[in-house]
Design goal:
The chain is 67% helix and 0% strand. Helix 1 runs antiparallel to helix 2 (46-66) and helix 2 runs antiparallel to helix 3 (70-94). The longest helix is centred in the N-terminal third of the chain and has 34 residues, at 9-42. It contains 9 helices and no strands.
């Protein structure tokens, strides 16, 4: 009698090796993520803290991809790393930040930050240790994902069919927020200088250059 794939020792070893490699990669990315998260709040230079946050986002995206949610990983890289963090770095590098004052504030609010961090860690431990997210407890999906099909096309099909109205409403709200930000930024302020490109193009040489004729004066010889 021929053995099936489930009974084949080679298949079992291959799957076991794949699971071990996946766990090792997961723990590597998780360790780097924890290191980057700690450095974000302990780095003395704000630019370095922002760069550590970029590293944390990249490792979080890798963890999402390992978990099978490649869409969330791609969005995390494109949106947060590609847009939000670039804006953070630009603002941090353009502002004149008083580092001594920041360090004083860190130490002064440390007695508040430590209890808040302890409460957050306790809540996460209670949620994870409750067993509510075990595979045996989780309900069976109503529409399971077929084998070999990524969740990105399925998510896109559901988003643009079932939740089309909500998606368009969110887009309109974001558009209104962008227009409001532009209007607040472009308002006229007294004492602010503005450039007029049309006037710059119409400028003539006589408007910028004036030739002055002065009589030549002989320099007195030094004694």
């Amino acid at each position: 009698m021929r053995r099936t794939d489930e009974q084949d020792p080679c298949i079992i070893v291959e799957w076991s090796l794949r699971l071990v490699i996946e766990k090792v990669v997961f723990y590597i990315f998780a360790a780097v993520l924890l290191f980057a998260a700690v450095m974000v709040i302990t780095a003395r230079n704000p630019v370095h803290a922002a760069l550590y946050l970029v590293l944390a986002f990249f490792n979080s995206a890798a963890l999402w991809i390992i978990a099978g949610a490649e869409f969330l990983g791609i969005v995390l890289v494109l949106v947060y790393v590609g847009a939000v963090m670039v804006l953070f770095l630009f603002v941090v590098m353009m502002l004149d930040i008083n580092m001594a004052r920041i360090r004083e504030g860190f130490v002064r609010h440390l007695y508040i930050g430590i209890p808040v961090a302890a409460v957050m860690i306790l809540q996460m431990l209670l949620v994870v240790g409750s067993g509510a997210f075990e595979p045996a407890v989780m309900p069976t999906p109503a529409m399971p994902i077929p084998e070999g099909v990524a969740n990105t096309p399925l998510l896109g099909s559901v988003l643009y069919t079932v939740y089309m109205l909500q998606f368009e409403l969110a887009a309109v709200i974001l558009l209104v927020a962008i227009l409001a930000a532009v209007m607040l930024t472009l308002r006229r302020r007294s004492g602010t200088r503005h450039q007029d490109p049309g006037q710059q193009v119409r400028v003539r040489k006589a408007d910028r250059l004036r030739v002055v004729r002065m009589p030549a004066v002989k320099r007195d010889e030094e004694s």
